[in-house]
Amino acid sequence: MSTHVHHDAEGDFTQGSVLSQLIRISTPLTLALLVNVLYSVVDRMYIGHIPYTGRIALTGIGLAFPITVMVSAFQNLCSTGGAPLFSIARGKGNEREAELILGNAYAMLLIFGVLLTFLGYLLKEKVLWLTGASGATFDYANDYLDIYLLGSVFVLTSLGMNPFISAQGYAGISMCTVSIGAIINIILDPIFIFVFHMGVRGAALATIIAQFCSALWVLLFLTGKKAVVRLQWRNLYLRPKLVGRIMALGVTGFTFQVTNSAMVMIYNMQLQRLGGDIWVSAMTVISSLREILYMPIHGVTSGAQPIIGYNYGAHIYSRVRECIRLLFLCCLIYLIALWAIIMAFPTVFIRIFNNEPALMPVASSAIRWFFCLLPAMALQMTGQNVFIALGRSKYGVSFSLLRKVVLVIPLAMFLPLAFNLGVAGVFLSEPISELIGGTACYVTMQLTVGRQLKQLEQQQVAAPFTDEAGVPDM
Fold first, then answer.
1. How far separated are the first and last CA of the chain, in Å rounded?
2. Residue 218 and residue 341: Cα distance in Å, rounded?
């Protein structure tokens, strides 16, 4: 490792046990992500319990969900592209490059926020009708998006810049970012929905006010004295080569969310055609549960990324390999435990969002079909996030497309026709794709990254391999 690199106390990931580093970063980050989910999930909890119209209103929010995911995908383009490059630059001691990455990522977020607001209003009605809206649910989805899209810039800023705080070692501050907004959202939701009788519009208004507060907190920290690398206006001027590097790496996370949005749209369209609103309601419950239950996995993988990237930049390959092993083990243990609980007690989770008796048997069957091979997800999450952390965007994008486009969408279209599966085929497309796509992703990661890291460690080679994002060798 180069001796000239300066390591600050909070952000030095080369010292101490890898497990302790992973716990230190992942624990508050996981809590932050869980709290962040409350921005959208708490809305659905309240909406689903509106007397008489709760289930239909909840279904309307579910139909709007793919569009809100699409907005979030663009923050992923900047954050999952910028934050690993930011960590690698800091690991190499190149603070100036880290400053430029931070500034350019924020400038990209601002531009995307404005464009998405305009395009959202232009296309939302057509998208809703195309992907499963009915006469009963369209107005609820449309009303929600009318308000939500006004806050696109706030959403992108709060979610897109927060990873740059945790990448500096301040995972606790990162947790505060979303905690502040979530608390505000939780307080405002019942006031707007029930006291002012604003319904889904009130839920959307509470969300964008909360996101504004989170965005303000992020900017105050990143421009303040406590930040190791500060956000400065002079670095917002876009550098084409740097933007290209950020997008080349971030396209993995972007593709992950865009394909997830497309996948939910296909699900809703098929379920509406085969079973009607009640099955779209079941998918809305599943989508909401997935957001909550998957957050610990996202917290651990997000916490591992700066550790992997930093040690990669510092040429400490043994710590990179150890972090990969621990990441897979943590994901697998959690998912096995979660699978057992879901299979045993599905109605407990359903009642969080809606108590309608007609929904219980439908949603219970749907949940068991959808999550039946849940532990296999550890393979995909580990492999894909290692590729992201080390800048290997080509592999990350390829396996995201394999699972969600090449596998899920054709399966969701074909399985309902096969063996008279009907709606069950739509839900079973998810676990089948997880097993096939996840295995392919993890095995490829071990044969490429894993093998190279082991060789570099054994040979004690000083220079790391070059990654597809264009990060230069030391």
1. 10
2. 36
